[in-house]
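Key result, reporting period 2: structure in, sequence out.
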């Protein structure tokens, strides 16, 4: 579960290193975001040659969470960190590589490009 001001690691090579969540989808109804949600975040740390710069506002797709997520078959999946992929307005990743595993829910939600770039879909 991702809340406001949660620090996310970046799972792509867009140039950002750390992100801070600043806006959740439907915040008045729910105060958390889960796998597959798109949140708005600010870049806290970035490399100087990257596509995104420090303090830039970006859209981020949540691909890993520490809090376990229950699947329809009764199994649970959880990861060691909270991570996201920086995406553009069309839902495509800004980076050309995805680091680490990605949850299967990402592919089911229609983000096929991100799932195909990932080394492992769990």
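The corresponding designed sequence is given below.
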């Amino acid at each position: 579960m991702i809340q406001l001001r949660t620090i996310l690691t970046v799972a792509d090579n867009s140039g950002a290193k750390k992100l801070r969540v600043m806006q959740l989808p439907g915040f008045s109804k729910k105060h958390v975001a889960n796998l597959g949600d798109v949140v708005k975040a600010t870049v806290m740390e970035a490399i100087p040659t990257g596509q995104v710069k420090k303090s830039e506002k970006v859209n981020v797709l949540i691909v890993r969470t520490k809090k376990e997520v229950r699947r329809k078959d009764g199994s649970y999946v959880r990861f060691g960190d909270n991570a996201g992929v920086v995406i553009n307005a069309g839902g495509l990743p800004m980076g050309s590589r995805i680091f680490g595993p990605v949850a299967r829910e990402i592919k089911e939600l229609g983000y096929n490009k991100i799932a195909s770039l990932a080394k492992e879909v769990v």
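The first strand starts at residue 7 and ends at 10. The first helix runs from residue 104 to 108. This case is discussed further under Risks and Mitigation.
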